[in-house]
Amino acid sequence: MVGKRIAMVGAGAIGGYTAAYLARAGYDVTVVDPWPEHVEAIRRDGLEITGVDDSEAFVQNLPALHVTELQGLSKQRPIDIAFVSVKSYDTEWATAMIAPYLASDGYVVSLQNCINEPRIAAVVGWGKTVGAIAALLSAELHAPGRVRRQAARGGGADPHAVYRVGEVHGRITRRLSELAEMIATVDTVSATVNLWGERWSKLCVNGMRNGISAATGLGGVARDRNDALRKLSIDLGGEAVRVGQALGYSLEDIGNLDPEKLARAWEGDRAAYAEVDALIAGGSNIRGRTERQRPSMAQDMAKGRRTEIDFINGLIVERAREIGRVAPANARLTEVVKRVERGDLPARPENLLS
Predict the structure, then answer these.
(1) 96 contact partners, CB below 8 Å, separation of at least 6
(2) What is the pLDDT at residue 157?
(3) Is the pLDDT of residue 209 over 80?
(4) Global confidence as pTM
């Protein structure tokens, strides 16, 4: 696998972090990104990685291309594995851009939030589509050429793998095992036969956290310490769990929460609520979590970028509607985040507490 050519399309927080570790392990990795200053910083100084511990800091030199320079790949050996690690709304063009440079047996890996495998498959076909979930990797691109991880390596106290990889058909293939072996050089990884259940479970996690931070301006720790916002988080997650189950997904843990207990907490089970609420509140004290930790959507809001709200909470609302259900908490959060995104409201706790 070390001899295979890898392209990381989108060298932001997750893509940049993953690419740097892969290159450090000896893999042939080229990063491609649309932010000129970021590309130039990587070329000039390398990609700087930091974490919650000083021992995690290093600088990795690796080839970096701006999207306008991608045609130069036509003079090089074809790409064996193309990771797409862009925002969900950029999936189609990013996949179409890298597709001509794939080897005949090459494939595309969705290393993204949300459920984007169908968008990738619409461009390259289902046989060339694989999923990868950075389930416990919290990171931020805080300056050009600089990525900071905001959670402990190995998942900290969480017993689950940081990365999950899966085939869309749910079988463990040779290429999936090789992909898992590769990502194991970055952090803990598991090859799953339940990609879609894993995807919806991660969607639940993001749906409970990202939009609340984006709408309020609060980091993850401050959000989880607020009683009313924890209640809203449980409402968001419970709705999402029941929608996912109705769609036929076999759900995994929602972060450190049992999906059935989360749903029962939302439905009014007092014992379940007390347990789930305590776990969420306790999460603010997990080793490696700091006051500066912000979910990706809050980072986007702070930078004035479009958020992925339509692809997270908005998707939960859409899929609920398709099967005759409603998800009012997710619908309300989607509306508030869009208002903040447009500038109609400042990001503040009152947006969700009033």
Answers:
(1) 123
(2) 59
(3) yes
(4) 0.93
